[in-house]
Every structure is written in structure tokens, then in C-alpha cells.
Design a protein that fits this description.
- By secondary structure, the protein is mainly alpha-helical.
- It has a single domain, classed as ABC transporter type 1, transmembrane domain (ABC transporter transmembrane region fold), CATH 1.20.1560.10.
- 84% of the residues lie in helices and 3% in strands.
- The chain has a two-stranded antiparallel ribbon with strand order 1-2.
- The longest helix has 53 residues.
- The two termini are 47 Å apart.
- The relative contact order is 0.14.
Length: 372
Amino acid sequence: MRFFQQIALIVDQKQLLARFWKTASQAWRDRKAWATALATFLISITLLQLLVQVLLNLWNRNFFDALERRDAHGLWLQALLFVPLAAASIALAATAVWGRMTAQRGWRETVTRNVVDRWLENDRYRKLNHLDHFVRGTENPEYRIAVDIRVATDAPIDLVLAFISSILTSLTFFGVLWSVGGSIDVVIFNRILTIPGYLVIGVIVYSSAVSTLMIFIGHHLTGVIERMNQAEAEFRAAVDAFREEGVPEEKKTGNGDKRRTMWLRLQTVLLWWREFCGQLVRTTLVSHGNLLLAPVVAWFLCAPKFLSGAMSLGELTQTAAAFVTVQGAFNWLVDNYQRLADWRSAAHRVATLLNALDELELKESEQKAAAQ
């Protein structure tokens, strides 16, 4: 029985995401020229950032090679080269922030206008309260419009750009690991086994293990965030219920019930917040542990070739840095798991509001057809 409930939940979530994208993607279709120009700009910035990252990786190798040779002139030259590379990296990072936030602002505006127009049309904001109580999406529509649409349109742009950057970074620095790291000889049962591109294999195995662990530990996070957001919205609605403008305090009715409702909503918020805290603690154990462990794994994998003299100090630092870079790119899911859970929760909540509006529109069409 539990298996079928899980299947039904997955199907429901996919339908909600599909409903959200049906409306959200319309914004990009309606402003095609703007969307194309902005997407091209953002991808170009991502490629330039990758280029600077590669140049900094090469600089890292040259700097430590000069340090190993005790070459003062070479160190001074690398110090001079670092200035334009650092300036370019800082400028590109700032430009990327501007581009992302411009895209997010435009997308949020278009989606919000679409939903608000439908919500206000024919006084649907009043009729939502009279829908069948089994219809989700009728609770706290103001919160869904003001907060959930913002999260649902902010996160995808950050996540997609980070994903594209991760793919390009992985492919680029795989080449560094393969060419500079080379192969390694391992003695197994008195036989020498040569492992080509062993650092590439190592980073794939390590990153896969960390990502699998994160998925296993944090798979409840999306549901917890969604319920916590709903509890926050209900608490806000309970607080707003006290605003009866123009009525003296002594003439207000039902304040006792409103107080009890407000404190109950607060307790629900705190309960879900505690559950969210537990989920976040567990995922932080994985993410922070990975942050500390990844560089150590890289140094240990590179150490045998350095100790044997097959790798210089500059090559050691270059490959170790490339390993950490690839591992960070490959573990896009680990780094963005909470943000992804936030987005899915917000998208689900926006989609349920859209489904409720769809039902109202359908009823209006049926009533109009019957009247004719």
C-alpha cells in the first residue's frame, strides 16, 4: 500500500511541476527577443568565467613550479599576471550577478502579472474560498503570489546556470586531470596494474558516493519545506485576521478564537521548523564533510606521483586544484540540494493555486454555456 502511495505522490508532483512550467514558460515565449538576448549574455559570461578559471589553474601550476625552483623573477612575473586574472574574475562575477537578477526580476514580473490577472478576474479571489475543500491551492493565495512565485522564478535561473557551469567545468578540468595526472601503476598480487586517468576515475567515484549519500539523507527535505511554508502562510493569515480597521477593540467579536488559532498556527510553524532544522543538520553533515574531505582526497591521490618524482610541485597543486574543482562541479546536486528543495516546494504551491484557478475558469465556462 505504501508503495502505491509513493507512486501516486511522484505522479502528483510531476503533474504539479508540469502545470507550473506551463505558465512559467509562457513568459519566455511572450518575450522571446528579451529572453534570447539575456540567455546568450548569461551563457557568454559563464564561458568567460570558465576561461578565467582555467587560466588561474595554469597560474597555480606556474607559481608553485617557480616556488620549487626558488625562481624570484618567475614568482614576480606570476604575481603581476595574477592582478589582471583576479580583476577579470571579480568583474565577471559582479556582471553575472547583475545578469541573473535582471532575468529573475523580469520572469517574476511576468508570471506574477499572469497569476494576479487570473486571480482578480471575475472576483475569483473571493470565489476561491467557496471551492470544494478537497481542492488544494485555495489556502493563502496571497502568500503564494507574493513569496512562492518569487522563489519559483529565482531558483531555476541560478540552478540552471550553475548546472551548465558544472557540466562545462567538469569537461574542461577532466582534461587537466587526464593529461597532467596521467596514469598510475598499482601492484596487485605481485603484478603491476596501470590505471590510465586514475584521477578522473577517482573524482567520479568520490563525487558519486557523496551525491548518493546526500540524496539518501535529504530525500524528505522537499516535503518538509513545503509543509513549513504552508504553516508560515497560515500563521500569517491568522495574524492578519486581527486587522479589523475602524472597529474599536471592545466591539471586536471572536478575538478569543482568533488568538487561539494564531497560537496554534505558531506551534505548527515551530514544529515544522524543528523538523526542517533536523533535515538541514543531516544534509550539512554531508556538505560540510565533503568540503573538508575533498581537498584531502585530492592530495592523497596525487601524493604517490609527487613522492616518486613523476610530478612537480606545480603539477601537484594544479591537479589537486583541478580535482577539487571537478568534484565541486560534479557535486552540483550536493551544493544545491536545499535550493532545489525550496524551488520544488514553491513551484508545487504555485501550481496548486493555478489548478484552483483552472477549476474556477472551467466552472465559469460551464455556467456561461448553460446560460446560452
